[in-house]
Amino acid sequence: MALMAYLSYMLAELLSLSGILTVFFCGIVMSHYAWHNVTESSRITTRHIFATLSFIAETFIFLYVGMDALDMDKWKTTQASFKTSIGIFGVIISLILLGRAAFVFPLSILSNFMSGNSEKAPITFKHQVVIWWAGLMRGAVSIALAYNQFTFSGVTQDPVHATIITSTIVVVFFTTLVFGFLTRPMISAMLPQHRHREPAGGRSTGSNSPKDEFILPFLGDEDASGSGSGFVQAKRSISMMLERPIHTV
């Protein structure tokens, strides 16, 4: 599976195409075909290895961004005034907000329309807002694309390219810190968690609603312990870790 993904990336690079997008669509194809042609133990191993490698790679990219953010030569190369930089930053943030909204809300409405006669729960407006907000944070892919396109080994002497790099760094820092910090309070406000009372027998009824499954990854240990979702128990259980690795890990 690793060689298949790497082959798609190398072919895209040889053809001067986007290797990142190629790997993304290769992952979609592999999830439908290659994923079901390996054993259960291989699927579990592959899931954990790829998740670990992804986390390490993203950590290195953000470390590189943090170190490069203090590179004064790149900021001096931009030759853009502070007022101009603020204007560029404001335009980029506005386009991110509008672009994300232009995709999420029409597609959610289309999804609700197409599944109107089925038993599938519709995507409510609050869920649409959460989906819109959660995708506003720019990160490793934006940085990687900007550096790959506008620098040579991380260095550029072109003022325009330097402006694009610095603007990307500012947007990534702002969206990650500000939007990321406000995500959990917004989810708690938009999708409040309802605690279920225990019946007379003392056994918790639990909750398997889609809303609880949606909020579960955002909860802390102290919040999840009383939610009836069994999150704490799953964290201590090897069998649950194998069955639900995303939530448990």
TrEMBL record:
One of its GO terms (cellular component) is plasma membrane. It is found in: Membrane. It catalyses: K(+)(in) + H(+)(out) = K(+)(out) + H(+)(in); Na(+)(in) + H(+)(out) = Na(+)(out) + H(+)(in). This is Cation/H+ exchanger transmembrane domain-containing protein. It holds the Pfam family Na_H_Exchanger. It is a multi-pass membrane protein. Keywords: Ion transport, Membrane, Potassium, Potassium transport, Sodium, Sodium transport, Transmembrane, Transmembrane helix, Transport. The chain crosses the membrane at residues 6-29, 49-66, 86-110, 130-150, 162-182. Residues 3-187 form the Cation/H+ exchanger transmembrane domain. The keyword Mitochondrion does not apply. GO terms for molecular function: potassium:proton antiporter activity; sodium:proton antiporter activity. One of its GO terms (biological process) is regulation of intracellular pH. Its main location: membrane. The keyword Transmembrane helix applies.
